[in-house]
Amino acid sequence: MKHVIIGAGVAGITAARTIKELDSNAEVVVIGDELFLPYRRCQLTEFLCDSIHRDDLLFFSIKKLNELGIKLRKGEYVKSIVPSEKVIKLHHNEVMHYDKLLIATGGKPGLGLVLRPFKKHIHFYYSLYDTLILKEKLPEIHKCTVSGDGVSCLDLICILHNLGKKVTYITRGERATFGLEEDDFEGDLHEFLGKKGIEIITGEQIVSVEESNQGYKVETIQQKTLTTDIVFAWDFYKPNISFIEGSAIEKKLGILVNTHLETSEKDIYSAGDCVEIYHPSIKDYWINFGLPNALEQGRVAGMNMSGQDEEYKIRDTITFNLMGKSLKARWWK
Amino acid sequence: MRYSEITIRFCGIAGDGIVASGKILAGACANIGLHVMVNNIYSAEIRGMGKSSATIRFSTSKLYSMGDGLDLLVGMKGKESIIDLRDVKAGGNVIYDSSVIGDVEEEDSLVSHITPEIQGHGLPIQKLANEATGTNQGKNLVAIGAICYFYSLPPEMFVDQIKSVFAHKGDHVIDVNIKAFNLGYEYFKEHYPLNNQFEIDKIQSPGH
Predict the structure, then answer these.
(1) Which residue in A has a C-alpha nearest to residue B114's C-alpha?
(2) Residue A166: helix, strand or coil by DSSP?
(3) CA distance A175 to chain B (A)
(4) Are A256 and A276 in contact (CB under 8 A)?
(5) Is the ipTM of this complex over 0.90?
(6) Average of pLDDT values for B35-61?
(7) Which of A70, A121, B49, B162 could form a disulfide with B45 if both were Cys (CB 3.0 to 4.6 A apart)?
(8) What's the pTM?
């Protein structure tokens, strides 16, 4: 039985390990688009500020892969899936057969139409590659401009501030909230960041980023001009599943799965941040972001791909730590 | 990573410009004072048939052998390059053509044989060469452009060498080959911006 797993993040690697633990004779191939061994994305910030070494990010060594007999293929992209023939096509036109397929490609940040033309001047803070580039540039950076949403954006603002950088945060909203439940923060997050020295510009939107003598010139929709050493921006974070276009795999924003993590196509499963799963409380599909969910979904998908009958149980909240404070996020709010 | 010596092998079939690749890379390195060794292996068969390879080792200090493994394998033809993967050092790199036309079976794919100890880098060699030259030629220059960026080597050393090697073929041939080189360089700059450093400033004078 050949199991092919697209995605070498937490969900994909957990599924691979689960399959091999249940059936050591199974052939397991994991295809990851990053150039690195599987690492903990959630610890990139610690690596950025030198709290941990690069090797400490890894959660699955070559030795462990070899011991379990998992074949990892790094730095490769899947171009398309043909469920009727049970094959996937890779970016270099290689054709690979599968018996069971898991899609665990996670989510990724992206830019909308307005900012896309300025992509080469804009940094993401998402992958180890992004972090390595940022780490190289850090000594020359003094002023940073950040525009985005979600906990990862807040995390970036905090780390840049803690590293002694001057941070300007631009948000379309009236307050800087990052989609968090502020009740858990014993006060107002917007005020808290302001007191920490973060400049917050509300009701605004970056419309252009150009190189200038002093780094970059940022223009906003209300014709405000800022100079900065680096620009971080993203308009959305969404499932990384463009390669399923043309297949009959059902999707909304993410791939739709049942509680066994099966997609609409036979022998194709999906897990992690690229999945939308039916949530009985909100009576709709929703994306179950975050590390604990990825771990659990990887385990459940691996079991079901090996012929077990395991159901994924939805978790309601994810807890984050921000400057020593515990925060809970409920993404559907 | 920082390097003071590098071993690169170009691998393909007759007609891929393998020997010319070695000549350009080795010549460019020698011209700026690096120590260079070259080993060409090619068959006596006609164009398009038979495997050929050129291994180039260059260093800031004197060389006495071809070394104990490859830092970089350039697989111009995937299937023919598979066996050469065994010579790539742990932590070494492979550049492969990601613009192959037609389906490739898993067992014939160079990429499918790359182990996690080695890093593969896709480069649309064929596509960029076509874009630069309008023909199937220039693939080797696309790869050399990528290598130039990958090891932070000065592009001028290659541009000068291209002008010298192709001088007898006229300006058009020089121009399209420089274009092929630039396309390879820019592709790697955009897709693999985190490059390595070859410590060119540590070149030792011949007396050392």
Answers:
(1) A73
(2) strand
(3) 36
(4) yes
(5) no
(6) 84
(7) B49
(8) 0.89
